[in-house]
Amino acid sequence: METSDNATEAPDEAPVPTGIAAQDWATASAEPQYRAAVVDLLGALAYGELAAFERLAEDAKLAPTLGDKAALAKMASAEFHHFEQITDRLTAVEEAPTKAMEPFAKPLDDFHRQTAPSDWLEGLVKAYVGDSIASDFYREIAARLDSDTRSLVISVLDDTGHGNFAVEKVRAAIEADPRVGGRLALWARRLMGEALSQAQRVVADRDALSTMLVGGVADGFDLAEVGRMFSRITEAHTKRMAALGLAA
Predict the structure, then answer these.
(1) Angle 46-47-53 from CA coordinates, rounded to 5°
(2) What is the largest CA-CA distance in the chain?
(3) What CA–CA distance (Å, rounded) separates 154 from 139?
(4) How many Å from the N-terminal Cα to the C-terminal Cα in the chain?
(5) Fewer CB atoms near the end CB (10 Å): N or C, the chain?
(6) Which residues contact 248 (CB under 8 A, 6 or more apart)?
(7) Using CA atoms, how far apart are residues 248 and 10, in angstroms rounded to an integer?
(8) Per-residue pLDDT tens for 66-124?
(9) Considering the domain 31-244, what is its CATH architecture?
(10) Whole-prediction pTM value?
(11) DSSP string for 178-201
């Protein structure tokens, strides 16, 4: 088999973690503000996973076939397992999971109430778009967390299979009726705007989290980087829309 001209070049090396990212939880959590930020982050992530479980279970009721219903039920089960991983971690570091989640329950519930899908396809697009935006956001932050917390966050962001499932079903629906594409594209744009606005409001309301994003306890994160982060999230959303067969 032929090789490309650059096949012998050394692969790019991952950047060496520095600051908090090079520390473990026992060391990093000695800083009270960092500890508070991580508790907030895990509380938000835990409630997000619980809400995802509830939403997928509800979506399963709208599924047009038994196979679709079973697939969504399996994904819901995976989301609940992620929820348990996070709450177990909070308990292990002597933080009450319900107390950590409480500040994020109303904002997330409000978001889901304001973006309630009207049918099966809108539900698929909402889960795909909303969960992907949240995952991108948490992955951006994870790079600057201590090694133990980073490993946990990355592990609970593992794909449950919903992305491929949603792409397959939405593309099939558009192929069967192209008019569906315009409606779902408008719906996805609305979801993107609501999700980003909600994320920004939540961060602004939590001092420890906002400090983590703009500097202070998180090394190298400044206001300009926050802007670049949201630009990267928006770009990833555009690519996912294309995968769905929708205009961003």
Answers:
(1) 95
(2) 59
(3) 7
(4) 40
(5) N
(6) 185, 188, 189, 237, 238, 241, 242
(7) 37
(8) 999 999 998 899 999 999 999 999 999 999 999 999 999 998 898 888 898 888 899 88
(9) Up-down Bundle (1.20)
(10) 0.82
(11) THHHHHHHHHHHHHHHHHHHHHHH
